Amino acid sequence: MSMVKRIGVLTSGGDAPGMNAAIRAIVLTAAHHQIDVVGFKHGFIGLLQQDYQPLMTHHVDNIIQRGGTILKSARCPGLHTVEGPRHAAATLHELNIDALIVVGGDGSFRGALAIAEHYQGQIIGVPGTIDNDVDGSDMTIGYATALDTALDAIDKIRDTADAFERIFLVELMGRHSGYLALAAGIAGGAEQIICPEFGPLDPHNLQHIITPIQHAQLLRGKASYIIVVAENSYPGGSSALAEALTNAVGVECRACILGHIQRGGSPVGADRILATKLGAFAVELVINGEHLQMAGEVSGTLQGYPLAKTGDRSKAIDPYLVRWQQQIGRN
Ligand SMILES: Nc1ncnc2c1ncn2[C@@H]1O[C@H](COP(=O)(O)OP(=O)(O)OP(=O)(O)O)[C@@H](O)[C@H]1O
Ligand SMILES: O=P(O)(O)OC[C@H]1O[C@](O)(CO)[C@@H](O)[C@@H]1O
């Protein structure tokens, strides 16, 4: 039997579809190994405010299909203070938590590392963010669902863009990464994709965006034209870019910002499976005595990955898709 008696779990940062499935897998796997689970509410805030609840198997009935997170999530400025991580570790010691599992993005893992400076127990991460910008796992929990949500919206925008023969800019989330924008742009048949990995946009030189639009107009006449734009790609966002392009091209451009719609909804099958595997594997990492590792899946194989390296940004957006998009002159 495992020496670990009690595990803490929390969800932190932007919520992602599949976080509930991960919580469920953690609770069910822990129960199988006779390990108790305590869920901390609202991310790290639950550690600072001792806001928690025991998680029994019946608490995770009927949640695998639900978006959001039953534990709630939050960003926790308190953890950035000198006292915050010390305080969080004190809560874990006081409640006899042998290991903490943090479900979130690389920011949450930085928070976990700060707590580890003061905590005697084990810490394991599970990558949950729609941004897919975490090193050490091909996919993060929530990304597949967010991609499908974005596609559903892009397909609908195409209908109205087509009817009005308009240029649309569709802004997708991703903070500072273009995984979602590239994938949704390709799968949505976008005419152009703009994301941070293609280099910063200079508001005074938009010719490389304008020229392909003009070419398309020459070839096809007036027709729908969709540009998928990752957030933070242009000062003032896609609305400002739409205005700049309207002035430059002389065709009315509209911006559509999908925003938090991308974070919601029932997780697709791929996210439920990934979350189940990574949640279960995180508990196994704990039982095996691992510490400061993230449960990841690379090329179909579950593996631990150092938490400290998860934010290194070494996982590039798909180079094959980037090259193809460039070859066909659509970025
Ligand atoms: N350097 C740090 N030191 C201490 N705590 C941190 C640090 N970076 C992040 N955190 C904690 O982790 C929380 C979540 O981080 P962040 O807002 O970057 O989201 P994330 O986990 O990267 O997820 P997502 O990118 O999907 O929103 C922060 O609100 C903060 O409490
Ligand atoms: O909901 P908030 O705090 O505005 O965060 C938005 C950010 O969170 C993310 O959705 C990640 O979860 C980013 O893509 C986005 O930049």
Structure description:
This is 6-phosphofructokinase. It is a single chain. The chain has helices spanning 19-32, 45-48, 83-94, 106-116, 143-164, 179-187, 207-220, 237-249, 269-287, 319-327; strands at residues 6-11, 36-40, 52-54, 99-104, 122-127, 167-172, 192-194, 225-230, 253-257, 293-298, 301-306. With 331 residues, the chain is α/β, with parallel strands linked by helices. The longest helix has 22 residues, at 143-164. It starts with 5 loop residues before the first strand and ends with a helix. The structure holds adenosine-5'-triphosphate and 6-O-phosphono-beta-D-fructofuranose. Adenosine-5'-triphosphate binds next to helix 4. 6-O-phosphono-beta-D-fructofuranose (F6P) is lined by residues 13-14, 75, 129-131, 173-175, 231, 263.
Summarize the model shown.
By secondary structure, this protein is of the alpha/beta class. The chain has helices at residues 19-32, 45-48, 83-94, 106-116, 143-164, 179-187, 207-220, 237-249, 269-287, 319-327, and strands spanning 6-11, 36-40, 52-54, 99-104, 122-127, 167-172, 192-194, 225-230, 253-257, 293-298, 301-306.
The bound ligands are: adenosine-5'-triphosphate, 6-O-phosphono-beta-D-fructofuranose
The ordered string of helix (H) and strand (E) elements is: EHEHEHEHEHEHEHEHEHEEH
Assign a percent range to the helix content. Answer: 25-40%
Q: Please, how many helices? A: 10
Apparent shape: elongated
Task: Please mark out the parts with pLDDT under 50 across 5 or more consecutive residues, or reply none.
Answer: none
C-alpha Rg, in Å?
22 Å
Structural class: alpha/beta
The number of E-state strands comes to 11
Sequence of strands across the biggest β-sheet? 3-2-1-4-5-10-11
InterPro entries: ATP_PFK, ATP_PFK_prok-type, Phosphofructokinase_CS, Phosphofructokinase_dom, PKF_sf
Domain Phosphofructokinase: 6-286
EC number: 2.7.1.11
Catalytic activity: beta-D-fructose 6-phosphate + ATP = beta-D-fructose 1,6-bisphosphate + ADP + H(+)
